[in-house]
Design a protein that fits this description.
Helices cover about 60% and strands about 15% of the residues. With about 180 residues, it is an alpha+beta fold.
């Protein structure tokens, strides 16, 4: 209901707008602050916003507020800056982890596709080997059959040539 915009009307908006720490010791003394409803609801008077910077861009902001007015100490500001830097690293690590997860899924799918293709290739090679073996066996079977066929044809020719001679021979073996 009350979005914070990147402008000067809130200390968080200033951090988004400038990319720098925004420190407001007392919002009642800040002429630019114009988000009184939030101050009343949150019951705060002092505010600190530290931008979350990655590659020069503001990715978010840490905003702290307290009910009593007064500046945050330099030690408090440094702790929040350090926490913001660590948060940016954690956000980047989460992004990188998601990229690695997505790439791992993609590689897993590719590996499954390659495995299936390899299996198909192995089956094709087996079928090709079986075809060559069958052709070799058929060739080896065909050679003896050709020999038998040739021998039978030659025998038939010889019988046909010998039939007239056999018919002319007497039972006693004379010609």
């Amino acid at each position: 209901a009350h979005p914070i915009h990147a402008d000067r009307t809130t200390f968080t908006g200033r951090a988004f707008l400038t990319g720098e720490v925004s420190h407001v010791p007392d919002i009642l003394d800040d002429s630019e602050f114009n988000f009184a409803a939030a101050a009343q609801l949150g019951e705060f008077r002092a505010g600190l916003a530290v931008p979350l910077l990655r590659d020069g861009r503001v990715e978010g902001a840490f905003s702290l507020a307290r009910p009593e007015p007064g500046p945050f100490s330099s030690r408090q500001i440094e702790v929040v800056k350090t926490f913001a830097d660590q948060a940016v690293i954690a956000i980047e690590n989460a992004r990188l982890f998601e990229e690695v997860q997505a790439r791992t899924k993609e590689l897993t799918r590719s590996l499954a596709d390659l495995s299936a293709a390899q299996e198909r290739l192995i089956q094709s090679e087996k079928l090709a080997s079986l075809g060559q073996l069958t052709a070799g066996i058929a060739h080896e079977i065909k050679n003896p059959l050709n020999f038998v066929n040739n021998f039978a044809a030659l025998s038939r020719e010889l019988i046909e040539e010998l039939n007239p001679l056999i018919a002319g021979t007497s039972a006693e073996g004379k010609v």
